[in-house]
Each structure stands twice: as C-alpha cells, then as structure tokens.
Amino acid sequence: MTTAPSFPQHRETASDLRALYRAAEARAARLRVIVEAGRTLASSPPDAMDAAAHMVAQEAAHLAGFARGVIATQTEGALGGDDRLCLPLEAPASDGTPIGTLVLEHRIGTPSAEDHEALGIITQLIGGALAAQVREARLATLLAELLGAQEAERSRVAHELHDGVAQSAAALARRLELASDGDPADLDQAARQARALVRELRQVIAGMRPPALDDLGLAAALRQLVDEADEGSGVTLDVALASRPPPPIETALFRIVQEGFNNARAHAGDGARIIIRISEAGSHYRVEISDDGQGFDPAAQAARAAGRGFGLGYMRERVERLGGRLEVQSAPGQGCRLLAELPAS
Predict the structure, then answer these.
(1) Whether residue 125 sits in one domain with residue 14
(2) Is this structure's pTM higher than 0.70?
C-alpha cells in the first residue's frame, strides 16, 4: 500500500523564508532611515538644522511605531508615559549632559530591540548635529565680539592719536619753528611740550598693554588701572599671590579684571562699591569681582547677547582655553559677582 506524501518540512521552510524576508525588509528599512537621517542632517545649513532635526524625529517615530516625533527641551522631555518614549540627545564626547530630547508620542505599535538600536544611532546623529549647531553659533558670537572689540580698540587708539598726540606734535613742531632763532624761552617751552608728548604716547601704549604688567607685575598694573579710573574710595583691590604667575596666566588675569572692572563701572550705577580680589588657592588662581549695584538677569542677558556683560563671551572663551572656568552671579537689584578660576600651570 502506497502512503501519500506529506510536506510539513516544506511548509515550515516556506514560513521561515517568509519570516527571514520580513526581517530583511525591516533591517533595510531601519538602515534606510538611518542613512537618510545622516544625509539630511549633514546637508542642512545651520539656519535649517532645527527643521531638519524635527524631520528626522518624525521618521524615527514612524520607524519605532509612533505617530509623532519631536525634538523637545530637557524639561519637556522629562515627561514620560505609556504612550510616549523619551530619548536623551547627547553631544559626542560630552560629559553626558543632554542638549535636548527625542520625544516619540502616540504609540501605535511596539518597537523591537532592533528598533531601539536604530533609535540609539539616530539620537547620536541628531545630538551631534545639534551640538555642532550650538558650537557654530557660539563661535559666530565670539567672532563678532572679537571683531567688535578690535574695532573699538582701533577707534579708541585713532581718537587718542588724533585728539591728543597729533595735536601735541603739531604744537611742538610750531614751537620748534619759533625757536629756530635760539630764543631760550621758546626752547624751554619746546622741551616741555616734547616731554608732554612722550607722556601722551606712553598713555596710549599703556592702554594697549600696561608697561607696569611687564615691569612690575600684576598687582602694580591693576593698581594703576584702578587709580586711572579715578573711582576714589569706591574700589577695593586685594591681590594676594605667593609668586608671580606665568606670563599667559598673568595676562589673562589682568584682562579678566580689566573687562569685569569696566563692566562694573559702566553698569553697576552711581555710588556702587566694587571689590576686586585675586588669590592663589592650591593649583588655581582665583579672581572675584563683585559690586553692590543694580544687577541684572544673567539668563535674559545671555538671550539678548547684548547690554551689560558685553564681551563676557570672549572673556569666557579666554578662560576656558586656559583650562579654567568663569561664573557670573547676579539678579536685578542685588549687584553682580564674577568669579574666574585659572590653573596655575
């Protein structure tokens, strides 16, 4: 008797093939989303990066079985739930502080382990792109401040040369012409005018880099800075250093005090007291500039990137480039405190 053939093995193999095919399609779809995300973010200019990131977020949502994907702030991203998946966005090689959150909302499916792996890659791409956007914006701001400071310095020197040195030199030339006959009075006046001209030139040079900083050190240069400001008893200067800092650190300390002191004078208000302290603590130099003036809102000032503290971005960049940190504490009506720390070497 002949037994009819059965094909259970063939049916199982066909089922396996269909499963493998679906899995291959799913992997291809994930890879396609990742590649397109990378291309979109890499090809987007800084002013279009936010829109590109939101587009990639929407594609990530569809990939993982959600109806909507957005880029949210950290506070918004901290809100979770059964119908929402929140993934932190971190900058490459950062300290782990999120710069935003990828929020997937309105779940319509269950993401697989492979989907989660793909989402991890996408969050890295978005985080890197947004971090690069922040860096470029910061560099653009610093460059604008640097160029503005350079232009202001050129303008200051030009005015001082024109209004002071040039006029004194012209008067000296005229006096020398009058003294050509050998009149002792004219010669004596010419000598006085020549000495005055030398003093004016030295003042212009000191505005660029005080000779006292090279000749006498930081404390003397800062005392000269305060004395020339003619602030009377409203300024307290305390420099407590065991030894002279290395030249790059000494220059940075002077510029920090110069910028912070000028900001306090310009914005603290009439009658405000200013305290400047420089000390050496272990392996760090510490600068503290405080005033009891009208104060300001640091968050609002940072958003405006204008008004009080103009140039603080460049100061912060100088400090961080030397491995230090800069902190500004203030509030309306409560004065301002600027704290900077620089490594001793």
Answers:
(1) yes
(2) no
Query: Which of 123, 140, 157 is the C-terminal boundary of a domain?
Result: 140
Contacts of 17 (CB under 8 A, 6+ apart): none
- Hey, is 109 helix, strand or coil? coil
pLDDT at residue 181 is higher than 70? yes
Q: Which two tokens stand for residue 309?
A: 């503290």
- Residue 213 and residue 218: Cα distance in Å, rounded? 5
Tens digits of per-residue pLDDT, 130-160? 888 888 888 888 777 777 777 777 777 777 7
Tokens in use for 31?
A: 């890879």
Residue with the two structure tokens 């024109």: 162
Question: End of a domain among 140, 168, 189?
Answer: 140
Q: For residues 288 and 334, is the Cβ–Cβ distance under 8 A?
A: no
Residue 151 corresponds to which tokens in the numbers above?
A: 């232009």
Distance CA 290, CA 272 (A): 10
- pLDDT at position 279, please? 94
Check whether 10 has a pLDDT greater than 70. Answer: no
pLDDT in tens, 245-267: 988 889 889 989 988 888 888 78
Which residues, including other chains, have CB under 8 Å from residue 146's CB and lie 6 or more apart?
Answer: 314
Residue 207 lies in a domain: no
Structure tokens that stand for 251 in this block: 């220059």
